[in-house]
Every structure is written in structure tokens, then in C-alpha cells.
Amino acid sequence: MNSVSVGSTSISSSTYAIADRGTALIVGPTAQVESLNGALDGTYDSNSQLYTVDCHTRSLSSFPNVTFTIGDTVFILTPLQYLWITGDQSTGCICYSVFSPSDSSDSNGNLFWILGDYFLYRYYSVFDILNNRVDFATSISYDWMPTVDSSLFPTSSTTTEISSIPNRGNSTVHRPAMHFSLFALIVMVATRYMNSF
After folding, report:
1. Which residue has the higher pLDDT, 132 or 79?
2. Separation of alpha carbons 2 and 11, rounded Å
3. E-strand spans in the chain?
4. DSSP characters for 57-99?
5. To the nearest whole percent, how much of the chain has pLDDT over 70?
6. Count of H helices and E strands in the chain?
7. How many CA atoms lie within 13 A of 21 on its CB side?
8. CB 118 within 8 A of CB 41
9. Given this model, what pLDDT does residue 72 score?
10. CA angle, corner 164, sides to 161 and 166, nearest 5?
11. Which of 55, 56, 161, 167 lies in disulfide reach of 95, CB 3.0 to 4.6 Å?
């Protein structure tokens, strides 16, 4: 993974990452995740071991996008895509960042990110075994936003006001149609099957 950034703030560059459907959150090296959540004005909660953010007095537009760059392609998560909101008006809402710290490392000691469900819900993953690579394509669920309690983000006129993906300079914003990723997966599986004879 080439880089992770919050708004215009660079969090990491040239780091390792894996995609894992068995991990709900997006997990990264502790120092990098601390910096990322710091850029979101997050506060570490030792009970949940997650970072909370203030969505009771801040507007939605005050939260920056988080961008993962893989190759020359950017993958953007908007605030409602990286905030986990629990509770309701009667119990009180808590807003968590889905970026969780963990110093997981490979057999060579390299720290890595785990792109879990909060990333993979927005981007399909295509595992190309023949070429030893993973490709990502924008999910049909990319633009879906959760219903947000009316007590949150008080100065926001709408909860989807920043859900569009901005142009990121010369980088390619990866938004191909879903049928392309499914077609690629079908071709890959069919090729593998035919080569087994």
C-alpha cells in the first residue's frame, strides 16, 4: 500500500496491507493509527479499545475523508463510511472511529494494515491467484449511508453532504462498474477450472 492520508495529512507511506473479511474494522500499526485518529480528533477509550470522536457538536463536514492509495489508485472513505455509530437518543449515541491499533507483523517483522469489512464493504476484492495479486473495484454499496440519529452532527444540513468522491489530482479514482469485477472473477475462476484438466 503506497500511502494512507487523512484529508491532506499523510499518515504513512510505503506500508504493507492485507484484505481480510474476518476482520470487521480497519486495523493498522499503533503509531500510524494513533496519528490517523489524532487527525480525526479522536480520543482513545480503554474500555472499548477504540477511538471515540465527537459527533454531537461537530458538523459532518468537519470530518475529513480518509484515503488509501494502492498503486496509482486512490480508495476514499468518507466520514459516514469510517464512523461506527452506536446507541440512540434514549441510550445516548457514541461515535467510534473504525481505525483500530495493532502491531501485527509478518514473518520478517514488517508491520501491516488489515483492510477489514469497513473497507471491503465499499470495495470489492478480486483475488487473482494466477498472478498473485488482489484487485479492488468500487462496490455497489459504496454510496449507501447509514441512517444517522437527528441529534448528531447538529450543524449539518444533510448526512450525505460529503459522500461524493473528489478528484485527487493526477491519481485515478477507482470507480469501475460492478459487472467488471464480477466478470474478472468469473473469467479467473473459469480459467483456473479449465487449466485443471
Report:
1. 79
2. 11
3. 3-6, 9-13, 16-19, 26-28, 43-45, 50-52, 66-70, 73-77, 83-86, 94-97, 99-101, 112-115, 123-128, 133-138, 172-173
4. SS-GGGSPPEEEEETTEEEEE-HHHHEEEE--TTT--EEEESE
5. 79
6. 4, 15
7. 6
8. no
9. 86
10. 120
11. 55
For residue 62, which amino acid is it? Answer: S
- Per-residue pLDDT for 33 more than 80? yes
Most confident of 3-7, 168-172, 190-194: 3-7
- Predicted confidence (pLDDT) at residue 161 exceeds the cutoff of 70: no
When pLDDT is averaged across residues 70-83 and rounded to a whole number, the result is 95
The strand pairing partners of 3, in sequence order, are: 13, 69
Indicate the DSSP class of residue 153: S
161-180 average pLDDT score: 36
- For residue 89 the three cell numbers come to 437518543
